[in-house]
Amino acid sequence: MAHALLSAPSHELKSQIAKTYDAIASQYNAWTAPHHEVRLDYLNRLLPHLPSSGARILELGAGAGDPGTALLASLPGAHVVANDISGAQLSLLRTRLASEISAGKVETREGDMMDLAFSEDDLDAVVGLYSIIHLPREEQGEMLRRIGKWVRGGGWLLVNFSGKASEGSVQMGWLEEGKESQNAMYWSSWSPAESRRLVQEAGFRIEVEELGGEEGPGVNFLWVLAQKVE
User: Fold this and answer.
1) Using CA atoms, how far apart are residues 201 and 154, in angstroms rounded to an integer?
2) Which first-to-last residue range defines the signal peptide (predicted)?
3) Which of 6, 22, 87, 222 is in Cβ range 3.0-4.6 Å of 192 for a Cys bridge?
């Protein structure tokens, strides 16, 4: 029987995602730490393309700020808007990066990424790692179209998608092995070809496109680094 979340309204789905990430913050951060090398590899491919000083960057799904937000905030004069749906994760980020927040290099915005708003051409880059995959498929294209308006001509997008299509899947007790749990996690994805098309339709020219970054048996991702067409 299909899980009720698969047919739930978007706001209920997001509420459950936030609740689950709040509940498993420590487990998730410990689980993902061994994969930081993959994230850092792609982030370091982005950095040379950013302004030498004063870059404005939006990070979708910033989590606890390690390693992405910390690296982006280390750029000279950078201002990073760190968004996450989990209040628990952003609380950890605020503790970890308190000095960067005090210096005005990092600000946090809690909530659904679909509720964010920026002016056109406001950002030099948007980073979305393991985050857009939590949106229902019909919202993913709209999110990319908004990003295409927010990023200035010549700016950049670094994002990953699932390596295979899924209309939506739910896993109960994710990362809570050996424990009965009502916490549920949700993901969805288009095919790599469709995800690529959505990025291009949002106004980006793809510079890097790779399948890899495996985080478990049979789990891989489409990694995209793309430049906004001027």
Assistant:
1) 16
2) none
3) 222
